[in-house]
Amino acid sequence: MKKIIVILVITMFYLNLSAQEKFTDPRDGISYRTVSVAGAIWMAENLKYIIPESDAYYFDNDPNNVPSYGVLYEWKTAVKAC
Q1: Torsions phi, psi of 21, nearest 5?
Q2: Which residues contact 43 (CB under 8 A, 6 or more apart)?
Q3: pTM of the entire structure?
Q4: Mind listing the pLDDT tens digit for each residue in 11-51?
Q5: Residue 58 · residue 65 · CB < 8 Å
Q6: Dihedral sign, CA of 24, 30, 33, 36?
Q7: What three-state secondary structure class fits 44?
Q8: Closest CA to 71 of 22, 28, 21
Q9: Beta bridge partners of residue 41, listed in sequence order
Q10: Burial status of residue 73 (CB atoms within 10 A of its CB: 0-12, 13-18, 19 or more)
Q11: CA 21 to centroid of chain Cα atoms
């Protein structure tokens, strides 16, 4: 019985991932993949928006990592970004 439940959960998760949609941020035109999990739509990628005149942090302190990893925000900046 446990194996059947695990298989069903994995199948449902796979079907949700295969039906990905896109969200385009109107501020900078970057498109992000989204997924539906339990009826809620989530971003499948980290936000890459850089807020003008605020501190932006990058993975490994390298701005070239933004396309792969997105931007790291402090709480106050994250609230503005979202």
Answers
A1: -115, 180
A2: 23, 32, 33, 34
A3: 0.65
A4: 566 555 555 688 899 999 999 999 888 888 888 899 999 88
A5: yes
A6: negative
A7: coil
A8: 28
A9: 36
A10: buried
A11: 12
Beta strands 57-58; 71-72: pairing state: antiparallel
- In terms of DSSP H, where are the helices of 1-82? 2-18, 66-69, 75-81
Question: Encoding tokens for residue 79?
Answer: 């609230």
In terms of Cα–Cα distance, which of 18, 32, 34, 20 is closest to 70? 32
Q: How far apart are CA 6 and CA 72, in angstroms?
A: 34
Residue recorded with tokens 């850089």? 50
Q: What tokens appear for 34 in the block?
A: 């989204």
